Amino acid sequence: MSLAVVGYGYWGSKHVRVLSSVPGVDLTIVDGEPERLADAAAHHPNVRTATRLGDVLGSVDAVVVATPPGTHTGLARRAIEAGRHVLVEKPLATSVEDAELLVRAAHENDVQLMVGHTFEYNAAVWKLRELVRSGSLGRILYVDTARLSLGRYQRDVNVIWDLAPHDISIVSFVLDEMPEQATVWAHSHISSQHPDVAYLRLDFPRSQTHAYVHVSWLTPRKVRQVTVVGEKRMAVYDDMSDNERIRIYDIGVDVAAITDPADAFALPVSYRTGDIISPYIAFEEPLLVQDRHFIACLRSGTRPQTPGERGLDVVRVLAATDDALRNEGRATSLVGVTEAPWGADLEVPVPGIAS
């Protein structure tokens, strides 16, 4: 299997590292910056390099697009129309129209289009999904996510398009549902070009719950956390933890019925406290699991777990946040999202994630 990784930046270098370890993969790195190609050659002496995708497109089976988001559509479309399978880093595109174009082109050219929603290949996220689906947390009251760090300001997208695709992907995967509405608050603190701090509220009608997503490029401490609050129990997924990525809290709040009108001024509640459990989760790097899955799908002809349609649905949510920002943050309804964007094949576990 011959692959070209286009872009040797933050994500491209990671793809090269993991793909270099996969047996039977012949790799070429494509980047227009000579300094990056020199660095790639120094770290991966057995990998070929090129400055233009067109120079290698005729000799590869598939292309991994790991360039800035604004370039995804042009590069992916070129590869697809040449009959090559494509894995595109998140977000799939920077507009709904471009994402639809890529999905349509992949279908017309009979090639696989996969989007790099890496957290859907993370064993801890699968465990969180299992906890929700099993009912052990009870009815889900809300989900809260935080993806915060300092730096990596982007030129062509704001902080929502840069960071929130991960959380939109995680929450919709865990709840098995796409949101119906998006409400946004965002602000630019450093540059007037793009917001660097944002809060989103996503409304999920079928499960009758909300997700609150906080993303920031301007925070001193790196945070990658998802909290699922249920009526029975609560669970926290902390991606920064080395050995306790999932913690289940047997705690909650019960509201007592008001029988005496004199008590109506106060809300009588009782608090439940119990054990905190951290289940064992065998960890394997999600990017490695994802990229191996991509190669396995190409070899078998199987539809990937995160196909282009999945990326399109996430782009629709991101586009709705743009509409909300233009309307002073007010709720914006989503149009065209699918009921189950990942398809029925999700019940078949991805090797390395679930048994």
TrEMBL record:
Superkingdom of this protein's organism: Bacteria
GO molecular function ontology, one term from the record: nucleotide binding
Gene3D superfamilies the UniProt entry points to: Dihydrodipicolinate Reductase, domain 2 (3.30.360.10), NAD(P)-binding Rossmann-like Domain (3.40.50.720)
Protein name per UniProt: Putative dehydrogenase
Residue span, Gfo/Idh/MocA-like oxidoreductase N-terminal domain: 3-117
Domain GFO/IDH/MocA-like oxidoreductase: 127-234
InterPro entries: Gfo/Idh/MocA-like_OxRdtase_N, Gfo/Idh/MocA_Oxidoreductases, GFO_IDH_MocA-like_dom, NAD(P)-bd_dom_sf
SUPFAM superfamilies found in the cross-reference section: Glyceraldehyde-3-phosphate dehydrogenase-like, C-terminal domain, NAD(P)-binding Rossmann-fold domains
